């Protein structure tokens, strides 16, 4: 979900850096997690990993369990909800009625649903766009209700997340060795299987994937605080969220990763209650880790952007809270260790560019995987383990960063972003004027403190049967 102003999208040069950076890194997590939907022929253990993995494959599995599994999908859902929150906020700012906003969201999510169905049927049965479109529309309706609804929704949807975690912890006890679509002998067979799966998913998505509402609601709440946009004003909130969120997310992943490393065949740990409970811990701490990850990346993106010279040679603040706050933050960053290295700056800008075309990149990853893994292409799904598959997807992600940067330099959006904007009725909004006359500036009077800067001191506190749906 792009961050948009009014009825149209924000120009590429004015997009908030933190959400795009997080979205770009989440794409890597999705690509790596989705490999379980392509590999087949080896009995599953926890998190749908292979029981008989090589040492290198097992090392990769453990790293993914600690950093990506059940951490990437809540991050992406949180960012999706953040976009819905931005859309609603700007709809209210221009006086649009709740009914009109819901109609616009209906049109947008129907288009997104169509894209998701095409992806799920033609390419990959582990599609997440269908679930995001349908659950996201429900979130868009709920956001127009009383402000207290979103915190309630975030808590009420948590049990559904727990069910997913339980399945992740116990999946290895039931003898699966891959998805039928991964082993389909030809494209037509795979097409039939994916079509049947897509139909079942649409029918049950609001039951199977309702857990997505929890991170989406958290994203809406964060958007109300402008948490990822006005980073300088919200620094005192973002720093502890980043520290505690990342720490809890990592610690909570250790038990299930330990099972994966020490007893993947369940020769010792074979109790459903114990494994399921460990899976639930992995899931819930992943949600906390996703929030910490989003906060940390917003801080990093803002730090890098403040190093970007503007046309007059000064450093642009890139924050609505004003030059004074930015100057204080710059002095604080200098005391903390100075500017980010150039390689970090280049990496951040590249990943941000990829995050701005996340819909196209997500489908593009499936195109590449479809050319590599099925039996009717290169059949790497039966030949590679986690390490080889991960290496291929990391390489794909890096190439996509280069392509996204090329689009950004030309001021262009991704092809599916263009389709979504045109069919959903979006248009680029005008950039604000910056060439005010001295008389106009004098008429504005002395600067006032930003309302968001004041309010930022206060903070409200499926997989189901589809592979790769929740990285």
Description:
- The chain has 471 residues and is mainly α.
- It has 18 helices and 2 strands.
- Strands 1-2 form a two-stranded antiparallel ribbon.
- α5 packs parallel to α8 (187-208) and α14 (358-372) packs across α15 (386-409).
- Residues 1-8, 310-327 and 428-471 have low confidence and may be disordered.
Structural class: mainly alpha
Oligomer classification:
single chain
Q: What level of helicity do the residues show? A: 55-70%
Q: What is the tally of helical segments?
A: 18
Which band does the percent of strand residues land in?
under 5%
N/C terminus separation: 18 Å
What value does the average pLDDT take? 84
The radius of gyration over CA amounts to: 22 Å
Ranges where pLDDT stays below 50 over 5 or more residues in a row are 1-8, 310-327, 428-471
- Describe the main β-sheet briefly: 2 strands, antiparallel
Number of strands: 2
- Report the order of strands and helices: EEHHHHHHHHHHHHHHHHHH
Shape: globular
Strand order, sheet with most strands: 1-2
Describe the secondary structure blueprint for this structure.
Layout: E1 4-5, E2 8-9, H1 17-33, H2 55-67, H3 72-93, H4 98-122, H5 129-142, H6 149-156, H7 158-170, H8 187-208, H9 213-224, H10 235-262, H11 272-305, H12 323-336, H13 342-355, H14 358-372, H15 386-409, H16 415-424, H17 438-443, H18 451-455
Antiparallel strand pairs: 1-2
Question: How do you describe this structure in short?
Answer:
The chain is an all-alpha fold. 63% of the residues lie in helices and 1% in strands.
